[in-house]
Write a structure and sequence with these properties.
By secondary structure, this protein is an alpha/beta fold. The protein has helices at 9-23, 29-45, 51-65, 76-93, 106-117, 160-168, 183-187, 196-209, 212-221, 224-250, and strands at 70-74, 96-99, 130-131, 141-142, 152-154, 172-176, 190-192. The strands form two sheets. Strands 2-1-5-6-7 form a five-stranded parallel sheet, sandwiched between helices. Strands 3-4 form a two-stranded antiparallel sheet. The longest helix has 27 residues, at 224-250. The N and C termini lie far apart (41 Å). Bound molecules: ligand PTJ. Ligand PTJ binds next to helix 2 and helix 4.
């Protein structure tokens, strides 16, 4: 039991959710490694949603609100950390949810589907009937109703290869990834450089606020490469300032 007073309470809770998810067979072993990598970048960013994240979150919501068939793809980590909020976001955006695993086993798919059933939601993905072209093995599996026919896909914590394959299919790809240098971050049309649980909560708020006219305005100004540059400059500036502060303490 982690005491609420612990200075790293939020971070420790996320770790606990991941470990629990792993023990339940929802999170892949590599999911624990991926989380550690994310934590490192969050430390560098400062563990808050910066302007570059907020702008990307607004643009993502705008794009999904205007989409014909928006789909939110979920994996083990996303299920363990944010299933309740993903359900709320999907309802607000009128989006489908599909389980799409990198390390696919039918048992993990079943457990993730069951996890979402707890919220009364029947997600797609346990009966795949299509493949994402250009990908080998089971990670290509998807459904015609969901990812295969989607025009806009939100793929949080995604593998770079699959993000590229979805883009090659002509889809508009939105990701949430704390690493602005990852292949997925660089491939996506909209990259939300923010921690998953913070990003989804912000998106829920924006989905309640943004109307069609505003959605168009937000998208007409959005430039993803500028957002990535802002994220890198933020880390750079922050580290430079911290280094200066350390140096001053020594003087
Ligand atoms: O459940 P599966 O089988 O689909 O597997 C899921 C993982 C995440 C293991 C798989 O997709 C994978 O290996 O992903 P990668 O290539 O490690 O990429 C995950 C990215 O998400 C990395 O760039 C991490 O920095 C980032 N990341 C990790 N945790 C978070 C995060 N970004 C935002 N919020 C997080 N909590």
């Amino acid at each position: 039991m982690i005491p609420r007073s612990h200075p790293r309470y939020q971070s420790l809770i996320k770790r606990e959710l991941l470990v629990e998810g792993f023990e339940k067979g929802i999170v892949a072993p590599a999911g624990l490694i991926a989380h550690g990598r994310g934590e490192t970048f969050d430390y560098l960013i400062g563990e808050r949603s910066e302007d570059f994240a907020i702008l990307a979150e607004k643009a993502a919501v705008a794009k999904m609100l205007m989409a014909r068939n928006p789909v939110i793809s979920v994996n083990g980590n996303v299920t363990a950390l944010a299933s309740a909020d993903i359900v709320e976001l999907a309802k607000l955006l009128n989006a489908k949810i599909e389980v799409n695993l990198f390390y696919r086993t039918e048992e993990r798919v079943r457990k993730i589907v069951e996890e979402f059933l707890k919220y009364g939601v029947r997600i797609l993905g346990d009966k795949p009937d299509a493949r994402i072209p250009g990908l080998e093995h089971k990670r290509a599996l998807c459904t015609t109703e969901g990812i295969y026919s989607a025009d806009v896909v939100l793929v949080p914590l995604e593998d770079g290869d699959r993000a590229q394959a979805l883009k090659n299919m002509g889809k508009f790809v939105i990701t949430i990834d704390l690493n602005p240098l990852s292949r997925t971050a660089r491939t996506a049309h909209i990259t939300i450089v923010d921690e998953l649980t913070r990003a989804v909560k912000n998106m829920i708020d924006f989905a309640k606020e943004i109307n069609d006219k505003e959605a168009e305005r937000i998208l007409s100004h959005y430039q993803n490469k500028v957002i990535l540059a802002q994220a890198l400059r933020h880390i750079n500036k922050r580290l430079e300032k911290l280094a200066t502060d350390f140096q001053a303490l020594q003087a």
